[in-house]
Specification:
By secondary structure, the protein is of the alpha/beta class. Strand 8, helix 8 and strand 9 form a beta-alpha-beta unit. The radius of gyration is 23 Å and the shape is globular.
Amino acid sequence: MIVAGCLASVGVEAGTLQAHSAATNQSSTAAATAEAEAEEPWSAYVVPAAANMRGSTGSLQHHVPSIPAARPAALPQGPVTIEPGSISHRQGQLAVRLPKGARNLTLQLKRHADFVFGTAYYPEKVAAADLDWYKSMTASMFQGLTPETQFKWFYYERVPGQYQQAKEGLDRDYIQFAQDAGFSLVRGHTLEWSKVDFGPFWAHQLNCSEYVAALKHRVVRDVTLFKGKFQQYDVFNEIIEAPGLLDTCNLWDTAFPDIFKLAHEADPEAQLCINDLGLIEAGNAPKLIRIIKEHLWAHDAPIHCIGIQAHFEYAGINMTHQQQQLDLLATLGLDMFITEFTLFTSWAGPPILPDHPDGWPVSYLDEQTQADMTTQLLKFWFSHLAVKGVFMWGWWDSNIWIPGAGIYTADRRPKLAAAAVRQLLQEELSTNVTAEAPASGWMQFKGFYGEYAYSFVNQAGRQKTGVLHFGRGAARRQSLLQADTS
């Protein structure tokens, strides 16, 4: 028997979503042991339903920056790296019961039980000649998806009441694509983002009471329309540094918690998140904790997860600080997702947006440095108890907001980071078991919790295939006897 690699990605646990759980130290060994003994629930999500509005319209422009030709003389130095912690909480001593006379057994991990590797997805920006390749590569590398722009309110409903075309595009180009690819997590990003860089937006030009009514309508309508299609929502995006009308209209203790309640009522199975920046590379974690405790939990509003943006300037990466901030956020007892991951070197691009007068982020990282740092960060996040997934914010240089930050070049060539990520997910963080002539009865192996594809030849010489789910507790032992139907 050998243990080697297969594609690692993941399903998201559903179960009963709670408004909040007791604060726990996610780094403690005791918590890891207790979690390892708990039963691992497996569940599936469901499908749709149905539900208009008026106001003033605004213009929207989309800017695509290009990477400057001039490269800095030398890249800045200074990342602080640490060894990732234990990943034993994602593994267990598993066992499979084999039929008498079984041979040529293979077990291949297809998805982790509690970790998903995903990406932002933006097919509208891809040329027709590249679209099939873009879809195929996305489906082969990832198992989670976030519409990069299509669901943002200012894009989804540019004119009040005119959202149907965007909704149809999401269903066709995102939801159906994710279902066909077998993705386990599709994120609704974002129900509201007060800071809009692409021009004036009609809803943000309303008075306070009109804005609240429009926002509530948007949330109820669209969470209902996408019930079961999005398993997770960023209810608000970037509210710490750009609270917008939450501050202007003093909505923190009224409309803010109400929006979470309305979203939960519209789809009780969906996870509700706040997605924000500066949480682990800067000092915004305590601010988010205060917002959740004082403005959500104090009003019995549900929140289930924290979305952590991770657009990192290479020289400023400090994993020691990240560890401290992740542990601090984990005391809330909520799932955490790295929702937007990119690496860059400097603000050397043209100053396109008014809030970035110093320029636009670009990446001049050499391929080996990019590969090393990408895999170090992925392993580091995978090792944290509370982190349930990592989403890259694009992966191809022709379709990513930071020029040069993709793991594939514009001409489709895989960079070293692409091979390194694939090796990490398919081998180091995966399980592949083979046994030519296993003894009948229980066969034990150490592996990651999750969904496995199996294959074996039975005593009658027929090949049997299927899927097994290995979880914690009693679910660590699975039987293949029922698969041997001759």
